[in-house]
């Protein structure tokens, strides 16, 4: 009776150990489901991003995989221990004596037969447990392969994420440099705008000065025409003066001739006077000739006076014309001075325009340099973007592989759950068999 009680207790303890080994699988599955729900809620609310959610899911999968492997090992160890214990019970010497007792018709024989039935049933349970153990071993191997693939995918994903992070940092640096260049371009554009405004003001001043210069030049042209007319009048007066002078010269020659003749007549009169003595008739002839010459000299003198009067009048006209020319020349000089001042202003404005143009040239060179650097930065950003796109593609592909791996883990987990349910069923059968043995033992008591 004590042996039968020990066997029933042993069977009951075996079932309890197996049940305790399988129960954590259900707890792990429950925790995994809750974890998935929490991560999805945080992701939907925007508390975490996709990368953090992926890391959390990866950590969960790794932890669950480790726990599943540990539980599978523990279950296998428990099942092997239970199987070994059953074999020892069947191979003991007590089993030989039990054959004799089973042939008895009393309560002891019934107890032995009941124990044998329970043992046979338990043997079937142990066989099922062995099959389940093999399946768990296969699942463990599948888990190992899955987690190897998962580690490889995570390694490549980490490399891609690291490359994306480095490229992102490089992009940020390039972006900051491009921003600085854009600020420089903005300042250059502001400087160019100021220079353009200065050029506009200078252009307005130059236009105004040109207008004034044009007016002055027109006046100078008018004054030049007036000067030309005045000079022509002076020339005409000079011609008249010359003509008068020629006439005076002619009259002077006539007077000179008359003077010569008068002198000759005087000489002749002297000679005749000396020769005639008493003869005075010759003096009368000489006197007549002298009178005629005197008349001619008087007429010539009147002509000279007339010519002198005309010459004086012409001289007065010449003086007036000269005064007009002088006034025109003075006015022309004043206008020329004004023109000189205007052109000085124009020169200053031209100098300012030149400085502004030089400043614009410098700003344009700076803009060109900034544009070249921005172009190089954009090329670098494009290269980084291509690398990020390629890394993102790799990450996406690995995420797909990881999804497939997770699906495989899910299927393997479902298989583990199925095997665990079968183990639980076997444990319940073992517990029922132990309960029947216990009940028979109580009846015997």
TrEMBL record:
Coiled coil: none
Keywords per UniProt: Membrane, Transducer, Transmembrane, Transmembrane helix
Pfam families for this protein: MCPsignal
Domain Methyl-accepting transducer, first and last residues per copy: 146-382
Any one of the GO CC terms: membrane
Gene3D superfamilies in the record: Methyl-accepting chemotaxis protein
A GO BP annotation: signal transduction
Residues annotated as transmembrane: 21-40, 46-70
InterPro entries assigned: MCPsignal_dom (IPR004089)
UniProt-listed PANTHER family: LYSOZYME-LIKE PROTEIN-RELATED (PTHR32089:SF112), METHYL-ACCEPTING CHEMOTAXIS PROTEIN MCPB (PTHR32089)
Name of the protein in question: Methyl-accepting transducer domain-containing protein
The organism of origin for this protein: [Bacteroides] pectinophilus ATCC 43243
Species lineage: Bacteria, Bacillati, Bacillota, Clostridia, Eubacteriales
């Amino acid at each position: 009776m004590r042996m039968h009680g020990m066997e029933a207790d042993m069977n009951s303890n075996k079932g309890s150990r197996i049940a305790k080994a399988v129960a954590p699988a259900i707890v792990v599955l429950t925790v995994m489901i809750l974890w998935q729900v929490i991560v999805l809620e945080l992701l939907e609310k925007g508390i975490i991003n996709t990368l953090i959610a992926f890391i959390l899911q990866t950590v969960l999968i790794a932890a669950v995989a480790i726990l599943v492997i540990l539980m599978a090992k523990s279950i296998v160890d428990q099942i092997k221990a239970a199987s070994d214990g059953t074999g020892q019970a069947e191979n003991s010497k007590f089993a030989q004596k039990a054959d004799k007792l089973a042939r008895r018709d009393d309560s002891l024989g019934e107890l032995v037969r009941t124990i044998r039935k329970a043992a046979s049933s338990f043997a079937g349970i142990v066989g099922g447990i062995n099959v389940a153990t093999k399946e768990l071993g296969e699942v463990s191997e599948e888990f190992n392969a899955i987690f190897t693939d998962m580690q490889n995918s995570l390694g490549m994903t980490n490399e891609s994420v690291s490359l994306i992070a480095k490229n992102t940092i490089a992009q940020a640096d390039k972006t900051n440099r491009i921003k600085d260049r854009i600020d420089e371009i903005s300042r250059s554009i502001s400087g160019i705008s100021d220079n353009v405004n200065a050029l506009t003001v200078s252009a307005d001043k130059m236009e105004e000065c040109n207008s004034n210069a044009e007016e002055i030049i027109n006046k100078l042209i008018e004054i030049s025409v007036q000067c030309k007319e005045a000079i022509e009048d002076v020339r005409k007066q000079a011609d008249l003066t010359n003509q008068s002078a020629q006439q005076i010269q002619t009259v002077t020659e006539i007077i000179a001739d008359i003077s010569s003749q008068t002198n000759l007549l005087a000489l002749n009169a002297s000679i005749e006077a000396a020769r005639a003595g008493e003869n005075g008739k010759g003096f009368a002839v000489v006197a007549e000739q002298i009178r005629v010459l005197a008349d001619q000299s008087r007429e010539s003198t009147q002509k000279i006076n007339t010519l002198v009067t005309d010459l004086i009048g012409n001289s007065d006209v010449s003086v007036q014309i000269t005064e007009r020319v002088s006034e025109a020349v003075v006015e022309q000089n004043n206008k020329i001075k004004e023109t000189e001042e205007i052109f000085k202003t124009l020169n200053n404005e031209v100098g300012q325009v030149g400085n502004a143009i030089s400043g614009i040239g410098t700003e344009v060179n700076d803009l060109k340099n900034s544009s070249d650097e921005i172009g190089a930065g954009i090329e670098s950003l494009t290269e980084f973007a291509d690398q990020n796109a390629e890394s993102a593609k790799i990450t996406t592909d690995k995420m797909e592989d990881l999804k497939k791996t997770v699906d495989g883990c899910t299927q393997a987990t479902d298989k583990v759950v199925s095997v665990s349910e079968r183990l639980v069923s076997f444990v319940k059968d073992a517990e029922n068999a132990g309960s029947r043995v216990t009940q028979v033992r109580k009846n015997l008591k």
